[in-house]
Amino acid sequence: MNTPVIVEALRTPMGRGRADGALSGVHPVELLAQTLRALLTRTGIDPGTVDDVICGCVSQVGEQSGTPGRMAWLASGYPEHVPSTTIDRKCGSSQQAVHFAAQGIMAGAYDVAIACGVESMSRIPMGTSKLGQDSAGPGMAARYAPGLVPQGISAEIIAARWGLTRDAMDRYSAESHARAARARAAGSFRREICAVATPTGMVEEDETIRENTTVERLASLKPAFENDAMKARFPQIDWSVTAGNASQITDGASAMLIMSEQTAMRLGLRPRARFVAFDVRGDSPVDMLTAPIPATRKVLEKARMQVGAIDHFEINEAFASVPLAWQRELGADAARLNPRGGAIALGHPLGASGVRLMTTMLHALEDTGGRYGLQSMCEAGGMANATIIERLA
């Protein structure tokens, strides 16, 4: 079996997903194209050697409807014979793209693959693909009567179930911004970011980090999902999820070059990490955001590892209650959990987030000398991917 290795990983700066956001003037295909060009320029490989471009994208409508990985590849001027496909596993789409790329190499189907992701939430708002339609159908409605709930309600259910207070979630969120701000000030994101050309100039740094965020400011925000119908259905909820302790709506792209170890050696490229184990799990679609817990347990079991052996955890901060509940269950060291901040500070460009998290984790392991990193992301419908990588000296 071939051994897949990570050779390069990078991401764009994170832009606020609104009309005046730093990246809002860039078509999502061009945003990804600039990322792919930076990836191949850094490694110097022949684009014609790439076997497949596997792209995560959630809202596959409008400007993101035309197989964005394929469009971005061709927009970059790269060879037409290289194909692409688009993955939608919701928030974990590009993490799943990583799994498929690595697994394809393990199986011998690929020698070289790119896993990437893109989401322009300013140009294609979240939920656009549903167009107000029922996406569950009568069978789901009957099984989960009185019905599924929005993710924000799921975040509230988790907070209530694990006894997470508003103050605890606000403190976690303020710390996410503080960690990201410290990382940016120290230049820790510099290697992983590729600058993006926009109609108004170059964007080189994350726009989403609020270094002056305080617990007191967060405490002043109103709950975002409280309403009479849900209050009647879930009387146990204290209504504490706000815009401040949830991930930011964001524009961004990310890309990772994965190849067999043998191919990397032949091309004179340095393998930076290998894959130790993969998992993907499902859990309750009503609780929805809890699947990282069983996915983490299973991926650790597959790797025959204990949680204490992991040097860096990336658990996507869809809402503060998600990593906090995960930490309570797994007993992970808080200092190792999202040590450079997470989606609350850096933003969550849906289809791009999986590779974004892994890119940050890889660079952090290299900077700190850590050996193992574990990543998991909650996904709509009650799913989660989990991955363990090992940094290579």
Low-confidence stretches: none
Q: Helix count?
A: 13
**How would you classify the helix and strand content by structural class?**
alpha+beta
Overall residue-averaged pLDDT value: 97
Q: How far apart, in Å, are the first and last alpha carbons?
A: 22 Å
Write down how many β-strands occur, each being a DSSP E stretch of 2 or more residues.
Answer: 12
Order of helices and strands: EEHEHEHEHHHEEHHEHEHEHHHEE
Radius of gyration, in angstroms, nearest whole number: 20 Å
Q: Work out the strand percent.
A: 15-25%
Multimeric status of the protein: single chain
General shape? globular
Helix amount, in percent? 25-40%
Give the biggest beta sheet: 10 strands, mixed
How would you describe the overall organization of this protein?
- This is Thiolase family protein.
- Keywords: Acyltransferase, Transferase.
- It comes from Ramlibacter terrae.
- It is built from 13 helices and 12 strands.
- The strands form 2 sheets. Strands 1, 2, 3, 4, 5, 8, 9, 10, 11 and 12 form a 10-stranded mixed β-sheet that branches. Strands 6-7 form a two-stranded antiparallel sheet.
- α1 (28-43) crosses α2, α3 packs across α13 and α10 packs across α11.
- The two termini are 22 Å apart.
- The protein has 393 residues and is of the alpha+beta class.
- The chain has helices at 28-43, 68-75, 93-107, 138-143, 151-161, 166-185, 215-219, 228-233, 261-266, 292-303, 321-330, 343-346, 353-368; strands at 4-11, 15-16, 52-56, 84-87, 112-120, 196-198, 201-203, 250-260, 273-282, 312-315, 372-379, 383-391.
